[in-house]
Design a protein that fits this description.
114 residues; 1 helix
């Protein structure tokens, strides 16, 4: 192999070495763009997941408040039912006493002769 051939090979090898980084940069540009898009999408997804978590927490808090309100309403309904039953019992007793008094007056009036 002559010196000129060696120099030509060396020049070609050097040109190839110079060309390699440019080819790598060209290949990495679309990859970098895709990575940036992926990072942006992941960030947006992270924000959405955080918002869902906040909404879920609020929903659970509201459900707990609703449960408490329902328990209070049921307890109040039970108390009202007991008061109504007690009043009905007293009313029934008063009506029975009144009916007995009317019956007694009717019998007493029937025994009296004019």
């Amino acid at each position: 192999m002559s010196t000129e051939e060696r120099l030509l090979r060396l020049e070609n090898a050097f040109a190839t070495l110079v060309e390699l980084p440019r080819n790598i940069d060209e290949r990495l540009d679309p990859t970098g763009s895709r990575v940036n898009t992926l990072e942006s999408n992941l960030s947006a997804l992270s924000d959405i997941v955080a918002e869902v978590a906040r909404n879920q927490k609020r929903t659970y808090e509201q459900l707990n408040r609703t449960d408490e309100l329902l328990k209070n309403l049921v307890a109040e309904g039970d108390r009202n039912q007991k008061r109504i039953e007690e009043r009905l019992k007293r009313t029934d007793e008063q009506l029975a006493g009144l009916a007995a008094l009317v019956e007694k007056n009717i019998r007493g009036a029937g025994n009296q002769q004019p």
